[in-house]
Structure formats: structure tokens, C-alpha cells
Amino acid sequence: MARIEPIVVPDSAAPAGHYSAGVRHGGIVYVSGQLGVRPDGTHTADLPFEEQVRAAMDNVLRVLAAAGLGPEDVIKAIAYVVGVENWPRFNAIYAEAMGAAKPARVVVPVPELHYGYLIEIEAIADCRDDDL
């Protein structure tokens, strides 16, 4: 049976609840939902939507990097966006952060998020060494 290994992200804020920023299990890394919390623990919820997206994407990429992965390893991304009208702005920043990687993705419009944030992003990534 495969073990569940927490991903420790150096120089990042500790999760605010009883969870890990990410875990590795059976060749897959699961990145918990990331808000735009800065590495020092301060919030960006009072900043414009675009800055919140950049901060949340940075956090996703930091968890992936701590697992030795990058955008090209992401299998699926899930984004929770307050206000469907924010979808185009999210999409542009997401595309910039992901580069050539185009994993499966879902964008879920939601009425509100924790701490007043407008975006939360989670991801699932392949960390196996084999080439399918």
C-alpha cells in the first residue's frame, strides 16, 4: 500500500487549517486549494482580482516545485472563482503562469470564498518517472 507523504513548502505560510499544502500518493501529487496568501502569511484578499490570481498561482507552483514538479506535470487544475465575469481575467493569468502546459481544467463560479478571496486554485500532478 502506498504511503501518503505531505509536501513541505519551504519559506511559505503554514496552512491555516488541519491539512497539508500538498500530498504525494501513488505517483500523484495533490495540491490543496491555494488562496493568495503570501509566503509571510499576509493576505491579498483586499487586492485586485488579478493580483489575487497571481499570488494563488504562485502558491500552486511553489507546492509543485517543493515536490520537484512544474506546470508541465499538472494533470488537472480546478479553480473556484467568485463572479463568473472574472473568468476571462483568470484565464489570461492562468495561461501565462502555465506556459505551454494545458492540463484538463475546470473553473467553478462560486458566491464566496474564505477570508473574502476571489480565487482559489487546486491541482493534481503526475510525479512518476515513466513515460506513458
Automatic annotation (TrEMBL):
Gene Ontology molecular functions: deaminase activity
Residue intervals passing through the bilayer: none
Any one GO cellular component localisation term in the record: cytosol
Protein name: RidA family protein
One Pfam entry name: Ribonuc_L-PSP
